[in-house]
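Incident log, support desk, overnight shift.

02:14 A customer reports that sequence design results differ from what the structure should imply. Their input is reproduced verbatim below. On-call engineer (initials T.W.) acknowledged and began investigating.
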């Protein structure tokens, strides 16, 4: 996705200017323009699901936000203006997410701050929830676990989370991870229960934006694996990881690789060293052909640190460490 792709309509206008008859009145922006911009978002989210966040994705998302905001002044109505702000907020959120997944945390913070402003201009609670969800994940990456809990509660407080149990489930699931990172076992398990209960009430087949298609029963199971491992229930985490991997669609290659890494961690924390290393090595095959996103590299680093803590002198640990360093340099 290159920047010029988002400005093809502008290029077409420039060509029209050289025609003998010129209409200098600005063309109003309407529903068809909003739909075109939204389709660009769908393409970026498909790329993210396969490859993960990277700078090219971030740049393309920023270009999409610029394109949407550039059309606001020519909106045919106030309703179209708000839709354009919503599209811009989604593009900016996508740019922020690409930065989070790539571990470019300062850039991610700036993108999220801007996205939250645009979501407010749009009066769009779905985008607002998306931003708070990403704030929680960014806080986790920064080891600011109390901030992550607060962001989870902010997501729960959005109008869409209160109205739609699907989004409410996502907000509770994100809060569960934050509680687990703080070591609050009871709160983490309670939030997981709320997430499961809410998801069971969500109607099937509802049209939803492409950014949230990753979430459902399989992703909630993967989140349960994270929570259980963080609160010391490694066996339950392993079982949940296997269950998640059996159902996460193959198109979500990055998510499958992350769930595989979580499975390896759960096995490692049960002192199953050889099995864990075999599992962790499959992550490199899953992401073959693309650089490993920064967030995944960090998680693999966590695995390696735990590995050399638990089994520093084993041959399998040394061999896996060699593979890890080789893949790190490739990425």
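02:41 Re-run completed on a clean worker. Output:
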């Amino acid at each position: 996705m290159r920047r010029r792709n988002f400005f093809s309509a502008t290029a077409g206008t420039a060509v029209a200017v050289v025609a003998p008859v010129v209409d200098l009145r600005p063309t109003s922006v309407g529903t068809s323009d909003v739909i075109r911009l939204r389709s660009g978002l769908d393409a970026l989210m498909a790329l993210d699901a396969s490859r993960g966040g990277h700078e090219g994705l971030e740049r393309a998302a920023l270009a999409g936000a610029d394109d949407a905001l550039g059309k606001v002044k020519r909106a045919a109505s106030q309703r179209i203006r708000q839709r354009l702000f919503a599209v811009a907020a989604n593009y900016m959120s996508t740019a922020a997410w690409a930065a989070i997944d790539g571990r470019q945390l300062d850039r991610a913070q700036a993108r999220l701050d801007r996205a939250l402003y645009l979501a407010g201009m749009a009066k769009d609670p779905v985008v607002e929830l998306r931003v708070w969800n990403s704030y929680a994940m960014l806080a986790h990456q920064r080891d600011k676990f109390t901030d992550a809990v607060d962001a989870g509660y902010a997501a729960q407080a959005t109008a869409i989370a209160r109205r739609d149990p699907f989004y409410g489930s996502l907000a509770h699931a994100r809060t569960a991870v934050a509680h687990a990172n703080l070591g609050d076992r009871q709160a983490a398990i309670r939030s997981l229960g709320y997430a499961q209960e809410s998801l069971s009430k969500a109607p099937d087949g509802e049209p939803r934006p492409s950014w949230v298609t990753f979430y459902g029963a399989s992703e909630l199971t993967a989140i349960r694996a994270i929570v259980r491992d963080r609160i010391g229930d490694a066996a339950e985490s392993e079982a949940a990881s296997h269950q998640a991997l059996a159902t996460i669609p193959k198109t979500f290659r990055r998510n499958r690789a992350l769930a595989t890494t979580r499975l390896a961690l759960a096995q490692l924390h049960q002192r199953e060293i050889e099995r864990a290393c075999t599992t962790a090595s499959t992550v490199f095959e899953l992401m073959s052909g693309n650089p490993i996103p920064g967030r995944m590299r960090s998680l693999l680093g966590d695995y390696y640190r735990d590995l050399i803590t638990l089994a520093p002198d084993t041959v399998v640990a040394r061999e896996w460490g060699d593979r890890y360093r080789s893949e790190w340099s490739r990425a």
